Amino acid sequence: MMQMQFTPKIGLAGVQWMFFILTNTVVVPLTLGQAFQLPAAQIAYALQFSFILTGLICMLQALFGHRYALMDGPAGLWWGITLSLAASASMGGSSLAAVGGALAVGYMLSGLMMAVLGWLGFVKILIKLFNPVVISVSLFLLTVQLMRNFFTGMLGIQENGQLNPSVALLSIGIALFVAVVYLKAPGWLSNFALLLGIMLGWLVYELCFPGAGGSEQLAAGAGKVKLFPWGEPRLDYGILITSFVVGLINMSNTITALTAAEKLYGQTSTEGQYRRSFLLTGLFTMIAPVFGMIPFGTFASSLGLLESTKILRREALVVGGGLFLFLGLIPPLGHWFSKLPLSVGSAVLFIAYLQMFGTAVRTIKGIAFDSKSIYRLALPLLLGICIMTMPPVVFAGLPAYIRPLAGNGLVIGIIMAIILENCVNWRRLGDPSAGKHA
Fold it and tell me: Which spans are transmembrane here (predicted)?
């Protein structure tokens, strides 16, 4: 591993990382607070601790865990599952507090499972399951899921479900500006295209829409806050099983992220790196529900930032994580940064994550596909996209705790890819590359 080194360029890259972490984190506690009908003071409390814990785990992972510039934070997969289960509470005849308390227990036990399995070397089994085709499917579907979210955020959707033309036009302008800086500016300047896009975009947004902000300002300290804000911990076997299944899929995201990072860094990750990474993520996952947060995960989407900026030094993530931790320790400052307009952050990340598509393509470089073997890639990928584009009401008739899994295109696509890669003999079907990669 490279020796730690801090320079002005690393410091500026750290500020860019701080904004990247912010745009991937700030919306999570706000939407969860609304889903569980929490008071503003409790949401502010969760927002503060999300900054502290996310900044801390990013620093620890870069220094002692996987030791790559890969963000850890509230995992998007867990976010979708949590919102789905909260929304289905009333339909299933349960209270929000009952579902929330069961989720807290399920998430803490899932975190324990991740830490224990990771430390015992379960990664060897996961690596066998996640060959290049499965990893490529994971990256493709993650790219589609994220790009859909960012594109929606760029449009400035209003309460009536229609886009806001002024906000959408500004977002397109910001996205084009970032793309031009990245493609045309000198090397040192193109490395900071995302940071320039966020700062200038935010400034222009405030000039065009004064006081419109991204998230409403929260009054920290006003009112009573408590631990386990979603509900008192309780055991529910349905939610527990769902938590374990999603926990295993979430572990696979670490495999995907570290395997793809190996190609960027030109090195092979050791078993120790995987063990330490799973241990840290598992421990922070166990802590998260205490403060009303979802479990943590390694963001494979960090690869988009690395590909865009070409700054691979882990010191930059240490600086960015430290700055983000600082925002959590100074609540008024953190709440001010949380007002970053969603449309601005979405426009910048829309350009950054285009690079993930290239990573997915390069992952299967050298694998030949014919009229039969193309199914190993096309079926899980297109099935996952089809599920992503379906309205949630399609799955309303399924049992409450199967619904979040069945309606998640990313999860179903990954599971289908694993089944096809481990149950079908592609070499017998005429794919000469199957033996090398499966």
Answer: 43-64, 76-98, 104-122, 129-147, 167-183, 188-205, 278-304, 316-334, 340-361, 373-395, 401-420
Query: How many Å apart are CA 53 and CA 73, to the nearest integer?
Result: 8
- Residue 383 burial (CB count, 10 A): 18
Residue 3 neighbours by CB distance under 10 Å: 5
Burial of 79 (0-12, 13-18, 19+ CB in 10 A): middle
What pairs with residue 296 in β-bridges? Answer: 74
Phi, psi dihedrals of residue 420, rounded to the nearest 5°? -65, -40
Place of tokens 């096309």: 378
| Contact criterion met (CB below 8 Å) for 383 and 416 | yes
C-alpha span between 350 and 178 (Å, rounded) = 10
Instruction: Report helix, strand or coil for 264.
Output: helix
Question: What is the average pLDDT score of the chain?
Answer: 86
CB of 205 within 8 A of CB of 220?
no
CA angle 267, 58, 115 (to 5 degrees): 80
Please compute, for residue 146, the number of CA atoms within 13 A of its CA located in the half-sphere on the CB side: 29
Q: How many CB atoms lie within 10 A of CB 9?
A: 14
Residues 228, 46: Cα–Cα separation, whole Å: 10
Is 0.70 surpassed by the pTM of this model?
A: yes
- Taking 3-state DSSP, the helix, strand and coil percentages for the chain, each rounded to the nearest 5, stand at 70, 0, 30
Amino acid at 313: R
Per-residue model confidence as pLDDT tens digits over 213-229: 555 545 544 457 789 99
